[in-house]
C-alpha cells in the first residue's frame, strides 16, 4: 500500500470514532470541570472535601488504568457499558479533574475589586458569578482550556486498547495485515497532527477575539 492509501484506509470509521469520542469527552470534562471548580470555592467544607477527593484520585492515577478499570472491572459489579461509553466516561472524568483546577485558579485570578463592585451594585452571588466573574475568568482560563482540549484529543489513542475502532485501532489492524510499520505509524502521526493543528489555531483565534479591546 502507498502512503496515501494507508491514510485513506484509516479514515472513515476510525476518524469518526476518534472525533465522536473527543467531542463527547470534552463536553463531559467541561461540565465536570466548571462544576468542580465552582464547588472547590464553596463555603461548605464537605462539598470542597468531596470534590478534592475526586480531583486528587483522577489526577493521581493513570488514565489508562482508569480506562481499564471502568471497562473491565465495573462489569464485575454488574455495571456493563459499551467501549465508547467507557472511553468517554474515563477521559471525561480524568480531564474534568484537571479542568476543575483550571476553573478554580481562573476564578481566583479575577481582581477582588470586581467582586466588591458587584456587591456594591447589589448583585446576588449567582449574578456576580454569571455576569462579572466567569466572563473575565474565562479569558484567563482559555489558554489552559485549549491545552487540555488538545491533550484530551491525543489521549483518545488509548481507547484502541479496549477494542474501540479509532484511528489507532485501525492503524494496528493495518499493521498486523501489511507489516508496513513505518508507513502506517507515520501516517497515524500525520493524521493526529492534521486534526490537532486546527484545534490549536482555533483556540488561538478565539483567545485573540475575546481579548480585543481589553489590553
Give the CATH topology: MetI-like fold
- Treating each run of at least 4 consecutive H or I residues as one helix, how many helices? 9
Largest sheet: none
Total domain units? 1
Give your account of this protein's structure.
The chain is mainly alpha-helical and 215 residues long. The chain has one domain (3-211): MetI-like fold. It has nine helices and no strands. It has helices at 3-10, 13-40, 45-60, 63-73, 83-109, 112-120, 125-155, 167-178, 181-211. α3 crosses α5 and α7 (125-155) runs antiparallel to α9 (181-211). The longest helix is centred in the middle third of the chain and has 31 residues, at 125-155. The chain is flat, with a radius of gyration of 21 Å. It starts with a helix and ends with a helix. The model has no long low-confidence stretch (mean pLDDT 87).
SSE inventory with pairings:
Blueprint: H1 3-10, H2 13-40, H3 45-60, H4 63-73, H5 83-109, H6 112-120, H7 125-155, H8 167-178, H9 181-211
Task: State the gist of this model.
The chain is mainly α and 215 residues long.
Pick out its properties:
215 residues; mainly alpha; MetI-like fold; 9 helices; 0% strand; flat
